[in-house]
């Protein structure tokens, strides 16, 4: 339960084995590719001994896969949008597969044929949609002019002209009055909408200038008629065209509907294409020649045998050279990645450490130390049997019935584990959805509540501070041990053990006065505290050349006692959140209990469900956030700095499925 030990793995093999080796490494997700040109092998050495080295990677395949990925995603969006049936389209059911099995079932030629046909259908569909939009505009216009019984483009006589258009309805009366003054102009109203009136005008050519002035005066919008048939006939023709386009759309969507049955193939193809792209990206880290290639990467030590065994299954030993090196001090300081290794109970809590910062390679993993404290704190802040049972059942059902993405699976396991301390603290506080447990059961007196959130508030407050004191002591102890391992003995005293002595000494002195009333114990506590305080001041004096600066540094360090008091006060939130959540739940129950019987067992039940759901959400969120804050600020600050780089092996996207190693899948 610590930071996984890493080794540097070097592989040399024939150039034609490159794809097989990369596929094997990607399927196991155990090796982080290392840029060979940034390794401890000198560049001039490579250039001297490998004159045919190819430093530039051919990205033709990568670009082809990227284009293919874009086409697959566009095709899936097209199917989801237009090929859906009456029932809501269900997403692909997540699976657990090996990379090898996906790659064996991947038929690139077949997928490309799908993509070509889908692209053609998409083009037809877009053209049909655009044509429909154009015709709908024309239909809308002609619908207003369908009662015009002449063709505007044709001349009625040699001496007359025809003008059609519309004006704002507000100008209708004035416009007609002005036209009426000119007897040679014939005006006919064709159509009227809520805001516009549509007219046809027949006038003598000699009156064109006069009519133009009137048209301009009333903002008459002239309509340019483009058809050689009557508006009514043009209108009917467009309606027929639109009906034909609707039928064509149906045919295209019918053809698309066939691909509903092929969506899973396309999802698999998308997953595989992502894998190909990641594999092509990895090739830029290799050293390639015309005959062989060199690969280098970071490998967790406990994955070594599995990787070697799997490689030898694909490639004979005599065609593969593998060498392992321990990381150098420079690599540990600048390059080596970090992978945590914990048991199944602690592993879900690694996400809390990752949110803060991964440990450096040589640093202790704080997750196993933090986990029991976080469990106790979380349970103390939620503290309800009913809420804990809901967490337990929800996470259990989800994990048993659904294959979750790995990140969500870890999150589910996280809350599954936390359901147990929540239930335990629910018994301690005697809370079941805010209601108290019975005092007796089948004539047996029950001991609940062990701590009452109404009568034992001070006891819970003291218990919260005690838990905080214990965690701070553990943090200081871990810091002291780590500093001692690094042979920084004086710092281990001034930054850890002396602070433990000071805090314990003060605690003994206070308890001896408040509870035990023992002068001897009081003096013991004072002596321990004074010696510890002197150690905190004296060590910087010893370490610093300037004794005055050392004294100032020591006194300033001693002033840090105030921060410890603040840290202990922070743990009172354990009491505050635990009591507030239970009190809110009890208040909800009381609110419903005051309702009349009919309302209580109808609306009241629904109200209880909604209110308790809200309280569960707020309680879990508060416990999650404040529990993490206590670890990050009050605990990690005592011994942990972080700053490690996460292990990033060559792997797949895992967008639709979980890629597992062969051994895990068989289990």
UniProtKB/TrEMBL annotation:
Residues 111-138 form a coiled coil. It comes from the Bacteria. It is found in: Membrane. The chain crosses the membrane at residues 373-393, 414-437, 457-476, 497-516, 522-542, 574-595, 601-625. GO terms for molecular function: ATPase binding; proton-transporting ATPase activity, rotational mechanism. It is a multi-pass membrane protein. GO terms for cellular component: proton-transporting V-type ATPase, V0 domain; vacuolar proton-transporting V-type ATPase complex. One of its GO terms (biological process) is vacuolar acidification. Keywords: Coiled coil, Ion transport, Membrane, Transmembrane, Transmembrane helix, Transport. Belongs to the V-ATPase 116 kDa subunit family. This is V-type ATP synthase subunit I. It comes from Enterococcus rivorum. The lineage of its organism: Bacteria, Bacillati, Bacillota, Bacilli, Lactobacillales.
